[in-house]
């Protein structure tokens, strides 16, 4: 790969990271209940991904019943990840929501021995300790009535759901197309979350359409597709390190458009959390 080609791919990876990082500010800004937002996100993304699979001739056949069960559980984890994340954003702010979510790489490292035959690396306990210190600094006050603490805890729950989803699907990526896997997950979510439209209402969608469309198309369909495509040209560790800049972009976008100013504790705690992500990404090489 020549230098010009490399720079072009690096630029595309950076743009993909920025697109994905818009999920935080959009989740905070869109004035709808999180389950309703996630239904629209899933429903619109399912249509886009189905059209892409048809256009590319990607098979939608699932080989066996066990794989169907795995995809269903992974879809539940994806739904939990998105819903808990959006509640975290609404209860706290973009900085706390995004930084608490980015504990997921260390959670994956700690949970992986439960899903595979690999042994736990002692360094992961050290990284987990650094994350806990970062969370302690990040938490404004340890009072369960504090909306910021509630947002932080929901962000961690979102990270746990995301980590479990990745571990569940890890062995299936080699057998199935990643776009097809994503299609089935958002399709399942759009079916399971349909009752939320009745119980929570979606009348306010008329004023929120532009932002929901941006979330479904720019953030979910284009951003994630570009990021997955970048793995053809970069090592997973390189993509992960660049991807760990998502909270930085998200906090910057929230500052520019939502006037959210991070505290000193957010910078210090967030730096510790992101440092562990970068360390683990480099080690995973």
Search tags:
single chain; 285 residues; mainly alpha; 14 helices
Question: What does this molecule look like?
Answer:
InterPro entries: EamA_dom (IPR000620), EmrE-like (IPR037185). Pfam families: EamA. Keywords: Membrane, Transmembrane, Transmembrane helix. This is Threonine/homoserine efflux transporter RhtA. The chain is mostly helical. It has one domain. The chain is built from 14 helices and no strands. The two termini are 20 Å apart. The model has no long low-confidence stretch (mean pLDDT 85).
Architecture blueprint of SSEs:
Blueprint (H helix, E strand, L loop, with lengths): L2 H19 L1 H7 L4 H23 L8 H27 L2 H8 L2 H12 L6 H17 L8 H23 L8 H15 L1 H7 L4 H26 L5 H8 L2 H13 L5 H20 L2
Helix pairs in contact: 1-11, 1-13, 2-4, 2-11, 2-13, 3-9, 3-11, 4-5, 4-8, 4-9, 5-8, 5-13, 5-14, 6-7, 6-8, 7-14, 12-14
The ordered string of helix (H) and strand (E) elements is HHHHHHHHHHHHHH
Radius of gyration: 19 Å
The mean pLDDT is 85
Fraction of residues in H or I helices: over 70%
Biggest beta-sheet profile = none
- What's the tally of helices? 14
Overall structural domain count? 1
The 3D shape can be described as: globular
Sequence stretches where pLDDT stays below 50 over 5 or more residues? none
Q: Give the DSSP E fraction (strand runs of 2 or more residues).
A: under 5%
Class inferred from helices and paired strands: mainly alpha
N-to-C span: 20 Å
Report the count of strand segments.
0
